[in-house]
Amino acid sequence: MSTGPKPAARTAKPRKGRRGRVRRRQTSMAINVTSVLLSVIILVGVGFLWMRGGVSGDFTGEGNGETVVVEVAQGSSLSDLSTELTEQGIVATEDAFMSAANSHSRSGELQPGFYRLEKKMSAASAVEALLDPANQAGTVDIPTGTRLMDTHIVASDDVRKGIFTLISEASCIGEGDCVSTAELEQAAGTMDPAALGVPAWAANEVGSRGDDPRRLEGLITPGVHQFNPQASAGEIISSLVSESAARYEETGLEASAQRVGLSPYELITAASLIQMEAPDGDFDKVARVILNRLEEPMRMQFDSTVNYDLEDQEIATTDEDRARVTAWNTYAKDGLPDTPIASPSIEAITAMENPAEGPWLYFVTVDKDGRTLFTTTFEEHQVAIQESIANGVLDSNR
């Protein structure tokens, strides 16, 4: 008798093999279907991300017209900026922006500040926009001697923009989307001095001027300032006044004022007279004239203080104008004006802090090249005035 396996046992193998082949075919078909589905999903996802700017994509064109304000902070890197631009939907990806910036020859010239950009810009367009000064917002360049309010200059028959106007223009984000001069004047005249950034050494004088927006005269320095154009009028003024106070204090303002016998606010007021009266190179001499007159005492009699609140202004003034009693007219009042009459430069501040030595009580510019004569006696001064008149410097156009 055979001891091998029964035939039935041998016939079981083919059935088992067929079931195995069926399962393998079913498994293979399932894998293939899954692979196709995954491929479709991946392709659809990649296409969606590409249209949205994902993966390594980029938007096309110069934006969709929706303005966005972006700050390039002092000391920030291109990498920091790429993250900000991507999060705000301005560029598609950080990689796209970094690639465009790194390949641009002028990317290293990008300056801190606020910029008007648009959503969905190509990376290259975003870089170009950031390098175009026309897209800066909240950057104001204040010339030396500028006043808060606009002034009409008789000689040239033009209007010199005041600080409030310059700030308003610099605040514009879009067409008509600006902080108005009226809003700035209201904030300057009605807000608490501390909320406007006024330093302690000027708080009493500013507070005493009531709701006159000119109470902040002289407290915003000339030069370039940057502010958030999306801020309120009061916030903008506060940032500029605070920054300006720090600039003034860096000169040693408080200690220097004490040394020359003035308060810090009085020193800035005197420096504003220098700014408006003295030619370049003579700032320290005019500073000495101011201190000598205060010591005498004798009135300043500066035409710039007569002009300060006049609607029409020029170098020469009339007898009628000089007779008006105002908070600034030093022909009609003793001492310094109640407030500065313009924004003095740091050069004018340091001249007042370090006046020249001399006995002068008078000075007058005698020609249109700015030559100025400093004299000690009234008789000498009268001779200098006649020379000035002869040269057309004091010839009134009114």
TrEMBL record:
Membrane topology annotation: Single-pass membrane protein
Sites annotated Important for catalytic activity: E277
The EC number(s) this enzyme carries: 4.2.2.29
Stored Gene3D superfamilies: Endolytic murein transglycosylase
Sample GO molecular function, one term: lytic endotransglycosylase activity
Ranges for region Disordered: 1-25
Protein name per Swiss-Prot or TrEMBL: Endolytic murein transglycosylase
Organism: Corynebacterium xerosis
This protein's encoding gene: mltG
